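Fold this: Phosphoglycerate mutase
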Amino acid sequence: MRLIHLIRHGETNWNRERRAQGQQESILTDTGRQQALQLGQRMTDTPLEAVFVSSSQRTRQTAELAFADRNLEIEHCDLLREIHMGPWEGQLYVDIQSAEPEQFHAFWHAPEKFSLAGAETFEQIQQRALQRFRHILESSAADNIAIVSHGIWIKSLLCALEPRPLSKLWEPPAMHNCSLSTIAIHPDGNQRIVMYSDKPYSSEQVESTQ
């Protein structure tokens, strides 16, 4: 059985400021760095063989801190980056809500309806996440893999695997900073989400998406 561990990055300065990050760069706060170190401690007994990390600075920092004491080869990948938020990136959410209330509401409450010029849709990032997930499974021989990415990237992938419609993407559990979600892939190809944002997951097994 293969285990795929999905990890969100630690808290960033833009998380704290409530600023839209998307694919722009932000850095871990002191709290975020501590979260990454604690994640590494929690995963000490997890026999990781391969680590795939979004090329964003906040995810690279998280992986470097969490796995600093382990002899692991880390592969960085642009396709593991967060949803591209176009003209919103770098703006405070309070200002976005004031300027574009309809799209702001769609983003947080009806993601399947979100459509902003210059930005990815939730369907597009979900397809990007699925394609990269499948590629990692097909290209790596490792049985224990960590993927360090972003909240929406991970949530959209888990929605596809549950399966859950994108309209319910923001339903609990919340994808907190340095959350850990795990997918078990059985020899017959079936996949089961066994942990979702650090909580045991008990839904029915879903068919393989490969």
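The chain has one domain: 2-200. The beta strands are 2-8, 50-54, 74-77, 144-149, 180-185, 191-196, 199-200.
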